[in-house]
Amino acid sequence: MKSGKHFVLVHGVCFGGWCWYKLKPLLQAAGHHVTALDLGGCGVHPKRLYEIASIADYLQPLMDFMASLEEEDQVVLVGHSYGGLGVSLAMERFPKKISVAVFITAYMPSYKDPPATLI
């Protein structure tokens, strides 16, 4: 969608893409394209929680989505809570596909605090 931005909404632990149900229609009404993903084992994602063995498994839907974007596409990546870890990893892996990242009370990794600190 060339007229608006493309927002990619990344939920936190124990949620799903459904948690953006109030924000998604507001962004769409403003002319933006919105993708609210279900991360591994969450929402309607086909893998069950017991099948998620690592953070890589959990974040695989986000990484697959980012990889599927055209090289010239840029998204606004929005993460909440533990979704901040996914946003950070996507920023490292796909820097040219992200115009801006927004952390909404989200975990921001650092070199001294492991991701398990949030849990």
The CATH topology, please?
A: Rossmann fold
Instruction: Tally the beta strands.
Output: 4
Largest sheet: 4 strands, parallel
How many structural domains are formed by the residues?
1
Task: Quote the distance from N terminus to C terminus.
Answer: 37 Å
Name of the CATH superfamily: Alpha/Beta hydrolase fold, catalytic domain
Low-confidence stretches: none
Shape type: globular
How much helix, percentage-wise, in residues?
A: 25-40%
Residues in β-strands, percent: 15-25%
What's the mean pLDDT score? 88
Instruction: Quickly name the level 1 CATH class.
Output: Alpha Beta
Query: From the alpha-carbon coordinates, what is the Rg to the nearest angstrom?
Result: 14 Å
Describe the structure in your own words:
The protein is built from three helices and four strands; from the N terminus they run E-H-E-H-E-H-E. It is α/β, with parallel strands linked by helices. The protein has a single domain, classed as 3-Layer(aba) Sandwich (Rossmann fold), CATH 3.40.50.1820. Strands 2-1-3-4 form a four-stranded parallel β-sheet, sandwiched between helices. The longest helix is centred in the middle third of the chain and has 14 residues, at 55-68. The chain is globular, with a radius of gyration of 14 Å. The N and C termini lie far apart (37 Å).
